[in-house]
UniProtKB/TrEMBL annotation:
Cited InterPro entries: N-FG_amidohydro, UCP029730
SUPFAM superfamilies cross-referenced by the UniProt entry: Zn-dependent exopeptidases
Coiled-coil regions, chain positions: none
GO MF annotations, alphabetized: hydrolase activity
Organism: Sinorhizobium saheli
Key words, A-Z: Hydrolase
Protein name according to UniProt: N-formylglutamate amidohydrolase
Length: 264
C-alpha cells in the first residue's frame, strides 16, 4: 500500500498571524478504496468536495503569505469537518446518492478511517495553528474556506457568499461588513446553514481554545472556473489582510458555544 497523505500544508509565513483551512479541498481517494462503488461523475459533485476551494485557497495563501492546511481526501470517505462522534462522519447517503463503500461498514474500518485520515488532518491543523502562535507571539486569526451549491432541492440560493459562526463574533462582524461594503454581492449570516456544530473544525481548533475565526462559504458557480477563482481571490485577499491587522483578533478570548458547555 503506497503512502497517502491526508493533508497538504502550504508553509507560508507563520509569523504573519493568519492561518487558512480548507477541510474539503479535494475529491481524492486512496487507490484501495476505488470509487466507493460510485460512478466517477459523483466525484465532480459537491457531495465529494468543495468545488473551487482548492485553487482559491492556494491563491489566497500565496497572496497573503499565509500558512494553509488542505484536506486531501474526499468527504465521501470521512468528513474532516465533523466531530468523531457525529453520526454524519461517514455518510451512507449524500444528496440522494447511496454510497455502497460506506454501508455496511465495520467498526474496524470506521476506526481505520479515523486513524488514517481524520485524525492526521486535525493534527496537521493543530500543529499549523501552534506554529503560527509561536512565531507571531499571539493568537493567530483562522479562516476556514468552503463552498455551497447554487440551489438546494429546487430552490435557488441568493447569497454569493456566506459567513458561518457559532458564538464568537470578533472576526465575523468585520468580515461581513467588509464583504457587504462593495455593494455588489449578497452575504449570508449563518445562511444557508448554521455555523454552530459541536466538534467540527472551528469548534475544535478555535472555539475551544478561544481563537478568533470565521468560516466563509462561496457559492460554487462563482468559483467553478479559473476566472471566478481569480476574481474571488482578488476580492478576499485585501479583506483578510484588513482583518488580520486588527489587534482584537489576535487575543485568546473564549466564548460560550451555542452547542452547549465545553468538556473539561
Amino acid at each position: 500500500m503506497r503512502h497517502y497523505s491526508p493533508y497538504e500544508i502550504i508553509e507560508g509565513n507563520p509569523a504573519n498571524g493568519l492561518v487558512l483551512l480548507a477541510d474539503h479541498a479535494m475529491n481524492r481517494l486512496p487507490p484501495e478504496y476505488g470509487r466507493l462503488g460510485l460512478p466517477d461523475s459523483a466525484f465532480e459533485r459537491h457531495i465529494a468536495y468543495d468545488i473551487g476551494i482548492e485553487p482559491l485557497t492556494r491563491q489566497l495563501s500565496a497572496a497573503l503569505d499565509a500558512p494553509a492546511v488542505l484536506g486531501c481526501f474526499s468527504r465521501l470517505l470521512i468528513d474532516p469537518n465533523r466531530g468523531e462522534d457525529d453520526p454524519t462522519l461517514i455518510m451512507k447517503i449524500s444528496d440522494g446518492a447511496i454510497i455502497p463503500g460506506n454501508h455496511p461498514i465495520t467498526d474496524e474500518e470506521w476506526q481505520n478511517r479515523l486513524n488514517r485520515f481524520h485524525r492526521p488532518y486535525h493534527q496537521a491543523v493543530s500543529e499549523t495553528i501552534a506554529r503560527a502562535a509561536a512565531a507571531g507571539g499571539r493568537a493567530p486569526l483562522v479562516i476556514s474556506l468552503h463552498s455551497f451549491t447554487p440551489s438546494w432541492k429546487g430552490a435557488a440560493r441568493p447569497w454569493h457568499a456566506a459567513v458561518l459562526w457559532d458564538n464568537d463574533p470578533r472576526a465575523v462582524f468585520p468580515l461581513i461588513e467588509r464583504l457587504e461594503a462593495s455593494g455588489d454581492i449578497v452575504v449570508g449570516n449563518n445562511e444557508p446553514y448554521d455555523g454552530a456544530l459541536r466538534g467540527d473544525t472551528m469548534y475544535r481548533h478555535c472555539m475551544t481554545p478561544g481563537i478568533a475565526h470565521a468560516l466563509i462559504e462561496i457559492r460554487q458557480d462563482l468559483i467553478a472556473d479559473a476566472a471566478g477563482v481569480a476574481a474571488w481571490a482578488e476580492r478576499l485577499a485585501p479583506i483578510f489582510a484588513e482583518l488580520n491587522a486588527l489587534p482584537a483578533l489576535h487575543a485568546y478570548e473564549r466564548h460560550p458555544s451555542r452547542t452547549g458547555a465545553y468538556e473539561g
